[in-house]
Amino acid sequence: MPATGSWSGAVAAEPSSPGASHRQGAALVFSGVSKIYGQGASAVHALDNVDLTIARGEFVAIYGRSGSGKSTFLNLAGALDLPTAGAVTVFGAPPTHTLSRADAARLRNRQIGFIFQQYNLFARFTVAENVETPLVYAGLGAADRSRKVREALALVGLEELAARRPAELSGGQQQRVAVARAIVTGPDMVLADEPTGALDDDTGGAILDHLQSINRTLGVSVALVTHDPGIAERAGRVLTFRNGRLDGDERRSGAYGGEST
Ligand SMILES: Nc1ncnc2c1ncn2[C@@H]1O[C@H](COP(=O)(O)OP(=O)(O)OP(=O)(O)O)[C@@H](O)[C@H]1O
Questions:
Q1: Is the ipTM of this complex over 0.90?
Q2: pTM, rounded to two decimals
Q3: Whose CA is nearest to atom 4 of ligand 1?
Protein backbone atom coordinates (compact mmCIF):
# COMPACT_ATOMS: atom_id res chain seq x y z
CA MET A 1 0.00 0.00 0.00
CA PRO A 2 1.29 3.49 -0.70
CA ALA A 3 2.03 5.80 2.19
CA THR A 4 -1.07 7.87 2.79
CA GLY A 5 -0.33 9.78 5.98
CA SER A 6 -1.17 13.30 4.91
CA TRP A 7 -4.12 15.13 3.43
CA SER A 8 -3.76 14.84 -0.34
CA GLY A 9 -5.56 18.10 -1.00
CA ALA A 10 -7.25 16.48 -3.99
CA VAL A 11 -10.94 17.29 -4.10
CA ALA A 12 -12.73 14.02 -3.69
CA ALA A 13 -16.28 13.22 -4.62
CA GLU A 14 -18.85 14.64 -2.25
CA PRO A 15 -19.39 12.24 0.65
CA SER A 16 -22.79 10.60 0.64
CA SER A 17 -25.46 12.47 2.53
CA PRO A 18 -27.61 10.88 5.25
CA GLY A 19 -30.50 8.92 3.80
CA ALA A 20 -28.67 8.06 0.61
CA SER A 21 -27.91 4.58 -0.69
CA HIS A 22 -25.02 4.10 1.76
CA ARG A 23 -27.61 3.17 4.37
CA GLN A 24 -27.08 -0.33 3.08
CA GLY A 25 -23.58 -1.77 3.36
CA ALA A 26 -20.61 -1.13 5.55
CA ALA A 27 -20.33 1.65 8.06
CA LEU A 28 -16.58 1.38 8.25
CA VAL A 29 -13.91 -0.50 6.32
CA PHE A 30 -10.22 -0.67 7.30
CA SER A 31 -8.06 -2.19 4.54
CA GLY A 32 -4.44 -2.90 5.44
CA VAL A 33 -4.39 0.08 7.80
CA SER A 34 -1.19 0.97 9.61
CA LYS A 35 -0.42 4.05 11.66
CA ILE A 36 3.11 4.96 12.64
CA TYR A 37 3.82 7.94 14.87
CA GLY A 38 7.28 9.46 14.59
CA GLN A 39 10.21 8.22 12.54
CA GLY A 40 13.34 6.11 12.74
CA ALA A 41 14.33 4.74 16.12
CA SER A 42 11.50 6.60 17.86
CA ALA A 43 8.76 5.34 15.48
CA VAL A 44 5.71 3.84 17.23
CA HIS A 45 3.61 1.35 15.27
CA ALA A 46 0.26 2.24 16.83
CA LEU A 47 -1.74 0.19 14.28
CA ASP A 48 -0.25 -2.60 12.23
CA ASN A 49 -1.97 -3.81 9.05
CA VAL A 50 -5.54 -3.83 10.37
CA ASP A 51 -8.32 -5.24 8.20
CA LEU A 52 -11.91 -5.04 9.44
CA THR A 53 -15.44 -4.15 8.44
CA ILE A 54 -18.14 -2.78 10.73
CA ALA A 55 -21.63 -3.17 9.31
CA ARG A 56 -24.30 -0.53 9.47
CA GLY A 57 -26.22 -0.73 12.76
CA GLU A 58 -23.61 -2.68 14.71
CA PHE A 59 -22.71 -1.87 18.32
CA VAL A 60 -19.01 -2.66 18.57
CA ALA A 61 -16.64 -2.47 21.52
CA ILE A 62 -13.04 -1.59 20.69
CA TYR A 63 -11.25 -3.35 23.49
CA GLY A 64 -7.63 -3.62 24.59
CA ARG A 65 -5.03 -2.59 27.12
CA SER A 66 -3.56 0.87 27.41
CA GLY A 67 -1.40 1.59 24.38
CA SER A 68 -2.92 -1.16 22.22
CA GLY A 69 -4.10 1.32 19.56
CA LYS A 70 -7.76 1.88 20.46
CA SER A 71 -7.76 5.68 20.33
CA THR A 72 -5.67 5.63 17.19
CA PHE A 73 -8.30 3.36 15.65
CA LEU A 74 -11.07 5.78 16.64
CA ASN A 75 -9.19 8.81 15.30
CA LEU A 76 -8.74 7.11 11.93
CA ALA A 77 -12.34 5.84 11.87
CA GLY A 78 -13.59 9.38 12.50
CA ALA A 79 -11.37 10.95 9.82
CA LEU A 80 -9.65 12.98 12.54
CA ASP A 81 -6.31 11.53 11.43
CA LEU A 82 -4.98 9.62 8.43
CA PRO A 83 -3.36 6.20 8.15
CA THR A 84 0.31 5.91 7.29
CA ALA A 85 -0.62 3.05 4.95
CA GLY A 86 -3.85 1.44 3.79
CA ALA A 87 -7.33 2.88 3.43
CA VAL A 88 -10.18 3.84 5.76
CA THR A 89 -13.62 4.06 4.17
CA VAL A 90 -16.62 5.51 6.01
CA PHE A 91 -20.13 4.80 4.69
CA GLY A 92 -18.98 4.29 1.13
CA ALA A 93 -17.37 7.74 0.83
CA PRO A 94 -13.99 7.88 -0.90
CA PRO A 95 -11.12 6.72 1.38
CA THR A 96 -10.31 9.35 4.00
CA HIS A 97 -6.78 9.91 2.66
CA THR A 98 -8.22 11.06 -0.67
CA LEU A 99 -10.52 13.66 0.93
CA SER A 100 -9.60 17.30 1.24
CA ARG A 101 -9.68 18.67 4.78
CA ALA A 102 -12.98 20.40 3.97
CA ASP A 103 -14.54 17.16 2.70
CA ALA A 104 -13.30 15.28 5.76
CA ALA A 105 -14.81 17.96 8.01
CA ARG A 106 -18.10 17.68 6.14
CA LEU A 107 -18.07 13.89 6.49
CA ARG A 108 -17.52 14.21 10.24
CA ASN A 109 -20.21 16.84 10.65
CA ARG A 110 -22.85 14.98 8.66
CA GLN A 111 -22.24 11.38 9.49
CA ILE A 112 -20.22 10.95 12.67
CA GLY A 113 -20.91 11.88 16.27
CA PHE A 114 -18.03 11.92 18.77
CA ILE A 115 -18.15 11.33 22.52
CA PHE A 116 -15.07 11.65 24.73
CA GLN A 117 -14.22 10.54 28.26
CA GLN A 118 -13.96 14.12 29.56
CA TYR A 119 -17.20 15.26 27.83
CA ASN A 120 -15.43 18.16 26.01
CA LEU A 121 -18.30 20.60 26.54
CA PHE A 122 -17.91 24.35 26.13
CA ALA A 123 -17.92 25.73 29.69
CA ARG A 124 -19.35 29.13 28.76
CA PHE A 125 -22.19 27.73 26.68
CA THR A 126 -25.48 26.51 28.07
CA VAL A 127 -26.51 22.89 27.65
CA ALA A 128 -28.71 23.83 24.69
CA GLU A 129 -25.94 25.89 23.08
CA ASN A 130 -23.49 23.00 23.46
CA VAL A 131 -25.88 20.62 21.72
CA GLU A 132 -26.62 23.22 19.04
CA THR A 133 -22.97 23.72 18.01
CA PRO A 134 -22.73 21.02 15.28
CA LEU A 135 -26.00 22.29 13.79
CA VAL A 136 -24.51 25.78 13.49
CA TYR A 137 -21.53 24.28 11.61
CA ALA A 138 -23.99 22.35 9.43
CA GLY A 139 -25.62 25.66 8.46
CA LEU A 140 -29.13 24.93 9.76
CA GLY A 141 -31.60 27.76 10.39
CA ALA A 142 -32.52 28.84 13.92
CA ALA A 143 -35.96 27.17 14.00
CA ASP A 144 -34.60 23.80 12.84
CA ARG A 145 -31.71 24.06 15.29
CA SER A 146 -34.00 24.75 18.18
CA ARG A 147 -36.31 21.83 17.32
CA LYS A 148 -33.45 19.36 16.88
CA VAL A 149 -31.81 20.48 20.13
CA ARG A 150 -35.09 19.92 22.00
CA GLU A 151 -35.48 16.46 20.44
CA ALA A 152 -31.90 15.43 21.24
CA LEU A 153 -32.16 16.67 24.84
CA ALA A 154 -35.48 14.81 25.22
CA LEU A 155 -33.79 11.58 24.06
CA VAL A 156 -31.34 11.79 26.96
CA GLY A 157 -33.89 13.20 29.43
CA LEU A 158 -32.31 16.62 29.87
CA GLU A 159 -34.95 19.05 28.54
CA GLU A 160 -35.32 20.61 31.98
CA LEU A 161 -31.62 21.48 32.19
CA ALA A 162 -31.30 23.18 28.78
CA ALA A 163 -30.43 26.60 30.26
CA ARG A 164 -27.75 25.39 32.68
CA ARG A 165 -24.03 25.52 32.14
CA PRO A 166 -21.85 22.35 32.27
CA ALA A 167 -20.35 23.26 35.67
CA GLU A 168 -23.89 23.13 37.12
CA LEU A 169 -24.33 19.48 36.07
CA SER A 170 -23.14 16.13 37.43
CA GLY A 171 -20.60 14.13 35.41
CA GLY A 172 -23.31 11.78 34.18
CA GLN A 173 -25.51 14.71 33.12
CA GLN A 174 -22.57 16.30 31.29
CA GLN A 175 -21.95 13.07 29.43
CA ARG A 176 -25.65 12.93 28.49
CA VAL A 177 -25.24 16.43 27.02
CA ALA A 178 -22.28 15.07 25.04
CA VAL A 179 -24.46 12.18 23.83
CA ALA A 180 -27.17 14.64 22.74
CA ARG A 181 -24.57 16.73 20.92
CA ALA A 182 -23.21 13.62 19.20
CA ILE A 183 -26.60 12.59 17.83
CA VAL A 184 -28.24 15.97 17.17
CA THR A 185 -27.19 16.03 13.51
CA GLY A 186 -28.64 12.56 12.91
CA PRO A 187 -25.28 10.86 12.34
CA ASP A 188 -24.90 7.38 10.88
CA MET A 189 -22.21 6.42 13.39
CA VAL A 190 -21.22 7.41 16.92
CA LEU A 191 -17.58 7.00 17.99
CA ALA A 192 -17.14 7.01 21.76
CA ASP A 193 -13.71 7.03 23.46
CA GLU A 194 -14.03 5.62 27.01
CA PRO A 195 -17.37 7.45 27.47
CA THR A 196 -17.95 5.96 30.92
CA GLY A 197 -14.33 6.18 32.08
CA ALA A 198 -14.92 9.18 34.35
CA LEU A 199 -18.22 7.91 35.78
CA ASP A 200 -19.25 5.49 38.51
CA ASP A 201 -20.71 2.13 37.43
CA ASP A 202 -24.39 3.09 37.70
CA THR A 203 -23.98 6.42 35.93
CA GLY A 204 -21.78 4.82 33.28
CA GLY A 205 -24.38 2.10 32.83
CA ALA A 206 -27.02 4.74 32.16
CA ILE A 207 -24.81 6.25 29.43
CA LEU A 208 -24.44 2.80 27.88
CA ASP A 209 -28.23 2.42 28.01
CA HIS A 210 -28.63 5.70 26.10
CA LEU A 211 -26.13 4.54 23.48
CA GLN A 212 -27.94 1.21 23.21
CA SER A 213 -31.26 2.96 22.74
CA ILE A 214 -29.78 5.18 20.01
CA ASN A 215 -28.32 2.12 18.31
CA ARG A 216 -31.57 0.18 18.44
CA THR A 217 -34.16 2.86 17.78
CA LEU A 218 -32.25 5.08 15.34
CA GLY A 219 -30.09 2.36 13.72
CA VAL A 220 -26.96 4.37 14.43
CA SER A 221 -23.73 2.33 14.36
CA VAL A 222 -21.75 2.65 17.59
CA ALA A 223 -18.04 2.00 18.12
CA LEU A 224 -17.10 2.35 21.76
CA VAL A 225 -13.52 2.25 23.03
CA THR A 226 -13.02 0.63 26.41
CA HIS A 227 -10.38 -1.18 28.44
CA ASP A 228 -13.09 -2.51 30.77
CA PRO A 229 -14.12 -6.12 30.00
CA GLY A 230 -17.46 -5.60 31.77
CA ILE A 231 -18.36 -2.82 29.34
CA ALA A 232 -17.01 -4.68 26.31
CA GLU A 233 -19.19 -7.69 27.03
CA ARG A 234 -22.34 -5.58 26.68
CA ALA A 235 -21.58 -4.94 23.01
CA GLY A 236 -22.80 -7.10 20.14
CA ARG A 237 -19.25 -7.49 18.88
CA VAL A 238 -15.89 -7.06 20.54
CA LEU A 239 -12.82 -6.16 18.50
CA THR A 240 -9.74 -6.75 20.64
CA PHE A 241 -6.51 -4.89 19.90
CA ARG A 242 -3.10 -5.95 21.13
CA ASN A 243 0.08 -4.05 20.27
CA GLY A 244 -1.64 -2.36 17.33
CA ARG A 245 -2.93 -5.58 15.82
CA LEU A 246 -6.48 -6.85 15.67
CA ASP A 247 -6.20 -9.83 17.98
CA GLY A 248 -9.82 -10.91 18.37
CA ASP A 249 -13.23 -10.43 16.74
CA GLU A 250 -16.02 -11.91 18.82
CA ARG A 251 -19.76 -11.61 18.24
CA ARG A 252 -22.34 -12.03 20.96
CA SER A 253 -26.02 -12.62 20.40
CA GLY A 254 -28.42 -10.84 22.73
CA ALA A 255 -26.00 -8.00 23.50
CA TYR A 256 -26.20 -4.48 22.08
CA GLY A 257 -26.28 -4.59 18.31
CA GLY A 258 -26.03 -8.38 18.47
CA GLU A 259 -29.07 -9.04 16.34
CA SER A 260 -28.02 -6.82 13.49
CA THR A 261 -24.78 -8.59 12.64
N1 LIG B 1 0.59 11.42 18.79
C2 LIG B 1 1.36 10.37 19.11
N3 LIG B 1 2.70 10.41 18.96
C4 LIG B 1 3.48 9.34 19.27
N5 LIG B 1 2.99 8.18 19.75
C6 LIG B 1 1.66 8.11 19.94
C7 LIG B 1 0.78 9.18 19.64
N8 LIG B 1 -0.49 8.79 19.93
C9 LIG B 1 -0.39 7.53 20.39
N10 LIG B 1 0.89 7.10 20.39
C11 LIG B 1 1.39 5.78 20.79
O12 LIG B 1 0.69 4.82 19.98
C13 LIG B 1 0.36 3.68 20.75
C14 LIG B 1 -1.16 3.47 20.71
O15 LIG B 1 -1.76 4.58 21.41
P16 LIG B 1 -3.35 4.71 21.58
O17 LIG B 1 -3.61 6.02 22.25
O18 LIG B 1 -4.01 4.46 20.28
O19 LIG B 1 -3.64 3.50 22.57
P20 LIG B 1 -4.93 3.21 23.47
O21 LIG B 1 -5.19 1.74 23.34
O22 LIG B 1 -6.04 4.13 23.11
O23 LIG B 1 -4.40 3.54 24.93
P24 LIG B 1 -5.19 4.14 26.22
O25 LIG B 1 -6.18 3.08 26.63
O26 LIG B 1 -4.09 4.32 27.24
O27 LIG B 1 -5.83 5.43 25.81
C28 LIG B 1 0.94 3.91 22.13
O29 LIG B 1 2.20 3.29 22.20
C30 LIG B 1 1.06 5.41 22.22
O31 LIG B 1 2.10 5.79 23.10
A1: yes
A2: 0.87
A3: 37
